[in-house]
Amino acid sequence: MSPGPGTVETIARVREEVCALHAELTRYELVVWTAGNVSARVPGQDLMVIKPSGVSYQDLTPEQMVVTDLYGVPVAGNGDGAWGNPELSPSSDTAAHAYVYRHMPEVNGVVHTHSTYATAWAARGEAIPCVLTMMSDEFGGSIPVGPFALIGDDSIGHGIVETLKNSNSPAVLMQNHGPFTIGKDAKSAVKAAVMCEEVARTVHISRQLGEPVPIDQAHIDSLYARYQNVYGQ
Amino acid sequence: MSPGPGTVETIARVREEVCALHAELTRYELVVWTAGNVSARVPGQDLMVIKPSGVSYQDLTPEQMVVTDLYGVPVAGNGDGAWGNPELSPSSDTAAHAYVYRHMPEVNGVVHTHSTYATAWAARGEAIPCVLTMMSDEFGGSIPVGPFALIGDDSIGHGIVETLKNSNSPAVLMQNHGPFTIGKDAKSAVKAAVMCEEVARTVHISRQLGEPVPIDQAHIDSLYARYQNVYGQ
Amino acid sequence: MSPGPGTVETIARVREEVCALHAELTRYELVVWTAGNVSARVPGQDLMVIKPSGVSYQDLTPEQMVVTDLYGVPVAGNGDGAWGNPELSPSSDTAAHAYVYRHMPEVNGVVHTHSTYATAWAARGEAIPCVLTMMSDEFGGSIPVGPFALIGDDSIGHGIVETLKNSNSPAVLMQNHGPFTIGKDAKSAVKAAVMCEEVARTVHISRQLGEPVPIDQAHIDSLYARYQNVYGQ
Amino acid sequence: MSPGPGTVETIARVREEVCALHAELTRYELVVWTAGNVSARVPGQDLMVIKPSGVSYQDLTPEQMVVTDLYGVPVAGNGDGAWGNPELSPSSDTAAHAYVYRHMPEVNGVVHTHSTYATAWAARGEAIPCVLTMMSDEFGGSIPVGPFALIGDDSIGHGIVETLKNSNSPAVLMQNHGPFTIGKDAKSAVKAAVMCEEVARTVHISRQLGEPVPIDQAHIDSLYARYQNVYGQ
């Protein structure tokens, strides 16, 4: 497959965006070493762009971002002048990102981290209850738990999609593993990852000394509707 | 409304100050993404200056700060050369700030955050007991909880004012929501936000392993009187 | 009192040192806003140098450091070219530092913070048990609690000295207040403040999930003797 | 002993690497003051390179790294132009590093820290259970506890080697002391130190509010085999 001029420019732009957004993962301390990744769908193409495997965040460059099809297979041309470095493999989590893009056409960005507090809830297999107005705004209810799944096939992707399609939440806590978040674009998925860790931490700390006060479901619905629709986030 | 020359200079100064103070919120990790805001009353005017909605802290410039009346309505002229950018809306929390300025004439600065430990106490609806000398100095007693209130009308502002008018504390924990702080100027309100999180965290951690030793009310009163009056903070 | 040439140079050097050491308090996040201070005795003089009151850490300059006698009274000449800024008052904790210098001639540096975990133990009035080899090295046993004391006279200084004179520890947790540390020089007192918070945090976290294993007193004594004498710290 | 030209170049390269890797210890906040160290075996020589004792991380230079034999004795020549600074002693933990190199020929890098959460588990003498997929990948099971051992002879080194030779884990928690990690090179040992603290923290936090869900041993084995062999880390 040989990209036309328009595609080349689009991919270059998506690579810039995906590369730059990893700085938010380190800014908010959601990742250590190389354990987290951002991807974005290439608009109008059956392609995605994702972090390469094993590269430290401070060393990432746009050219290193890997272009794959929606089955996670790197496309021919990654190594030429237009598409980047042939020596880098896509993130080991690529299959899960790709599954989400295949099955959720409205999703254009996916983020995976092992952020500490979200992963702590995931290790107990416990959903985060919605006891904060900020959480009502962003998540519209609790943050659900997805199944335990091994890496290597579509199990993780399937677990993400099956869990999120029944929830307002753009975040799912994969059991014993960590959070995956989705968005209408990559920046929204990164924001969801940041806010997921924030509410995971705040609700955890609140519960350490007693039970948080529940929020009425009608209030949660009202806050969510306002934030998503009226307020226009 | 067309501002005279003196007002233009005053507003420019307040915008600089409000913009710069947001750096203290990130320095002390009181906020993530765009979830916190500082405002200041414009001296001698029925006007206030507040953070625009949805702008990241590292991108804030003085020109982006939004001037509103004391009902939170952006004033005509925000978009001209003197008053800034017409495309930015004021923070979604503007109505609460404005209510405080209308009902507490001695207050010239307001800060809102979702800082982690203060919000954790707020989620349980539990006041922070005064068990630290530093807390006696700054807060003169416990940090009280305000009512659960939905955004969209004056409920939040009313809850803040009704709670603070019966307390020494410049900070209130709005239930399930987070802290609001006030001050004689914006810097004092920011200091109160920083100290609120500091004592929320320290008292939380202390209580994780047992009960803190109470401080006699007479000692709290003595420390508060000295710090506020003699020491001259 | 007019300082001679040698004294002027010595005081300038001590001011540089005291000013620079405050950067360690912020580096290790032991302080917020202006709530912590370092002092040093001026060698060969009945004088000390201490942080001014109410100045932010990022704004500190050597010239602002205040020279006082060992009763905490600023010396004449602070405002001239040699001795600095006449408008700044010494830290509100100066009386406690001065008391220590008067009563512990071997001490040449004192540090006070409200570092989170140490203050959390102080709020419960509970000594930190010695359950770490690092703590045996540095503190030679538990970190003791000093009495509750109000600011304004010699009560705090007296409580520090009475507690430390019966302990190997260079750190004392003043009840409901926070840690004070001492050293043979100001850098050693700063190191003690850093290590005090480190062991306060680690032992706290260890105890959250059970009881730490005690270390035999003979082993504590052996580690302390080696670190202080053989190893030469 | 006088090094030949090839050895001089190799040692210079190892010194650069060991010096630079200390920046990862501070980046991930695994160390305070001077309390942690990295070493590497010199390829093809019975020599190792280790941090000097008592030097702050921000002041480290490659020339300061100390070359010792595999009994921890600084080699003649550290002070000449080729081998560095004669005034610096090797880290007080050198004997433990050296013992590991003598008894584990496949190990070429060793790291020691007192990172907070790992040390908290060590203080309770409790192994970290494997309840995270990331932990299965990196550690292949639980992170074991080694014996209490005093500094000054081979007790610490012996405890490290005896514990690690029966475990998949590249990390051991020495009781009441802290973690030591090993690797096929120094960077791998640093990665193990970073990941050890990460899983120590996440599992600790998870257990604060209940019991994490166990992972089947067959799944742990499968994840470990894939990550170490197929994935090629």
Describe this structure in words.
The structure is a homotetramer of 233-residue chains. The relative contact order of chain A is 0.14. Helices cover 41% and strands 13% of the residues of chain A. The first copy, chain A, is an alpha+beta fold and 233 residues long. In chain A, helix 3 crosses helix 6 and helix 4 packs antiparallel against helix 6. The first copy, chain A, has seven helices and seven strands. In chain A, strands 3-2-1-4-7-6-5 form a seven-stranded mixed sheet, sandwiched between helices. The first copy, chain A, has one domain: L-fuculose-1-phosphate Aldolase, CATH 3.40.225.10. Chains A, B, C, D: Belongs to the aldolase class II family. AraD/FucA subfamily.
Shape designation of chain A: globular
In round numbers, the mean pLDDT of chain A is 93
Domain module tally of chain A: 1
Task: Indicate the proportion of strand residues of chain A.
Answer: 5-15%
Widest sheet of chain A: strand order? 3-2-1-4-7-6-5
Largest sheet of chain A: 7 strands, mixed
What is the CATH superfamily classification of chain A? Class II aldolase/adducin N-terminal domain
What is the first-to-last residue Cα distance of chain A? 37 Å
Write down the CATH class of chain A: Alpha Beta
Largest interface: A-B, 27 and 26 residues
CATH architecture of chain A: 3-Layer(aba) Sandwich
Report the radius of gyration of chain A as a whole number of Å.
18 Å
CATH topology-level name of chain A: L-fuculose-1-phosphate Aldolase
Q: Structural class of the helix and strand makeup of chain A?
A: alpha+beta
**Tally of helical segments of chain A:** 7
Which residue ranges of chain A are poorly predicted, with pLDDT under 50 across at least 5 consecutive positions?
none
| Helical percentage of chain A | 40-55%
Domain Class II aldolase/adducin N-terminal (chains A, B, C, D): 16-204
Keywords (chains A, B, C, D): Isomerase, Metal-binding, Zinc
Catalytic activity (chains A, B, C, D): L-ribulose 5-phosphate = D-xylulose 5-phosphate
EC number (chains A, B, C, D): 5.1.3.4
